[in-house]
Design brief:
This protein is of the alpha/beta class. About 35% of the residues lie in helices and about 15% in strands. The radius of gyration is 20 Å and the shape is globular. It starts with a helix and ends in a 12-residue tail after the last strand. Bound molecules: beta-D-mannopyranose.
Length: about 375
C-alpha cells in the first residue's frame, strides 16, 4: 500500500498541528474535519493513533531503508552481575551508547514483577526514561495459560475457550484489562502517551506456547489477535500502539502468512530467529529477512527482526560476521527497522554483550558500523520525518 495523497495531506495536517513534543492524544478538530470520520491516519491498524505513534511508524519505515536499530531485552532492568541500578546497561558499558530500542515483557501482569523478576512499576519508569532519551520501546507478553494457570509454555489448548462467547472469555478480558491499565500508565509528566510497539502472541508458528500452532487453528489465532486489538483500541481507547506480529524462522511468503490476522490488523511484520549458531546459517537468516521485507514493502508496513540471538553469544565475531552479515545479506534483508537480542540474565544465559565478554571487541565494531543505529544515532523518532 503506497501512501495515498489523502494520507499524505492528513499527515501534513498533523505535522502542522503543534510543534511541541507531545500533542493531544485525541484527534484534533482540524484532522477530524480533514477526514470527516474522525480518522487521523489511514496507515495504521489504529486510525486514531496519536501523532507520536504515526510519526514513530514513519520514522521506523524511513530508517529501515538505510540502517538497523539495535535493541536489547530488559537492557536497563538488569545485566550480567547487576540488577536495577540507575543508568546501568551492559550494552552501554561495552560500547558507550545505549541501545536504540528496548524490549519489555508483560508476562505475569497482575503480580508485582514480571516472569523474569522485573518490577512492573520500575518497568514503566524505564519505558518513560527511554522515551525521554528518544529511544523506542517494544512490549511482548508471555501470558500464563488462561485455562490451566500454567505458564506461557503450557501449550494445553486454550485459545478456543477465551474467544467471544466461550466460557473463559470474560476471565481473559480481565487479563487484557490489566495489560490495558499498564499501557495507559505509559505517559510523560505532561500527560503525553508514550508510543509502544505491541507484540503479543509471538512465535505462533511454533509449538511451545498455548497460542502456538499445535494448540489452536489459524482461525482461532487470528480471532484471538483481532479480539485483543479490539479490546485495547476500541474498548479501552488506547491509541499509542503499533501492532507487531512475529512468527519464528520463516522461509516463504506462504509460511509467513499461514497464521496472519490480515493487513488491517498488523502494522509491523516481524520475525524471531534463533538459528544463527553457525556461519552457514547466515544466508538462511538473510533470505528469511528478505521474504519478510518484501511482504512488508508490498503492504506499506515495517519489517523487523523482533528477536534474534544465540544463548551466550558463542562466537567472538558473532556481531559482525553472523548478525550483521545476515542482516546485510542482500538489498532486501537490510530493509528491516530493528534487530533485538534477548536478555542478559547471567553468565549462563545472555544474548547481548557485557564487559569482558569474548565478543565485546567485535560488538565495538558492530557499534561503529554506520549501518547499526544506537541511541545517539537516532533522529527525533516521535516527530514526522
Ligand atoms: C526465554 C528465557 C526465559 C525467560 C523467557 C521470557 O527465552 O530467557 O528465561 O523467562 O524468555 O522472557
Amino acid at each position: 500500500m503506497a501512501i495515498s495523497k489523502k494520507s499524505f495531506i492528513l499527515i501534513l495536517a498533523l505535522t502542522c498541528l503543534g510543534g511541541s513534543a507531545c500533542r493531544d492524544s485525541q484527534p484534533s478538530r482540524a484532522s477530524e474535519q480533514e477526514d470527516g470520520k474522525g480518522r487521523v491516519n489511514e496507515l495504521l491498524v489504529d486510525s486514531l493513533a496519536t501523532p507520536e505513534t504515526v510519526a514513530l511508524f514513519q520514522n521506523l519505515r524511513a530508517l529501515s531503508a538505510s540502517g538497523v536499530l539495535f535493541g536489547h531485552q530488559d537492557d536497563l532492568a538488569y545485566g550480567v552481575g547487576w540488577k536495577a541500578v540507575d543508568g546501568r546497561s551492559d550494552v552501554k558499558e561495552v560500547c558507550g551508547d545505549y541501545p536504540a530500542l528496548y524490549g519489555w515483557d508483560l508476562g505475569d501482569i497482575g503480580r508485582s514483577a514480571n516472569l523474569d523478576g522485573v518490577d512492573f512499576g520500575r518497568m514503566k519508569e524505564w519505558i518513560r526514561e527511554v522515551y525521554g532519551r528518544g529511544g523506542v520501546n517494544t512490549v511482548s507478553m508471555h501470558l500464563d495459560n488462561p485455562l490451566t494457570a500454567g505458564d506461557a509454555w503450557d501449550n494445553s489448548p486454550a485459545v478456543r475457550s477465551i474467544l467471544p462467547g466461550a466460557a473463559h472469555h470474560s476471565g481473559f478480558l480481565r487479563t487484557l484489562d490489566q495489560i490495558a491499565a499498564f499501557l495507559k500508565d505509559l505517559r510523560t509528566p505532561d500527560g503525553c502517551f508514550i508510543p509502544v510497539v505491541f507484540r503479543p502472541y509471538h512465535e505462533h508458528n511454533h509449538d511451545w506456547s498455548w497460542w502456538g500452532k499445535s494448540s489452536c487453528t489459524a482461525e482461532e489465532y487470528n480471532a484471538l489477535w483481532r479480539m485483543t486489538v479490539r479490546h485495547l483500541r476500541d474498548t479501552h481507547s488506547i491509541h499509542h500502539l503499533l501492532y507487531a506480529i512475529s512468527p519464528q524462522e520463516i522461509r516463504s511468503e506462504s509460511e509467513y502468512l499461514d497464521r496472519y490476522p490480515g493487513d488491517a490488523w498488523v502494522d509491523i511484520l516481524g520475525m524471531d530467529y534463533y538459528k544463527l549458531w553457525t556461519k552457514s546459517n547466515v544466508p538462511d537468516l538473510g533470505k528469511a529477512l528478505g521474504v519478510m521485507a518484501r511482504l512488508a514493502e508490498a503492504r506499506g508496513k515495517v519489517a523487523a527482526l523482533t528477536e534474534v540471538g544465540v544463548e551466550n553469544v558463542p562466537a567472538p565475531d558473532w556481531w559482525t560476521a553472523y548478525l550483521l552479515a545476515g542482516i546485510r545479506y542482500d538489498a532486501w534483508s537490510g530493509k528491516i527497522a530493528w534487530a533485538l537480542v534477548w536478555r542478559n540474565a547471567s553468565t549462563d544465559h545472555h544474548f547481548g554483550p557485557y564487559p569482558g565478554h569474548a565478543s565485546a571487541s567485535d560488538f565495538l565494531a558492530f557499534h561503529r558500523d554506520p549501518f547499526t543505529l544506537f541511541e545517539r544515532d537516532l533522529p527525533g523518532m516521535y516527530a514526522f520525518p
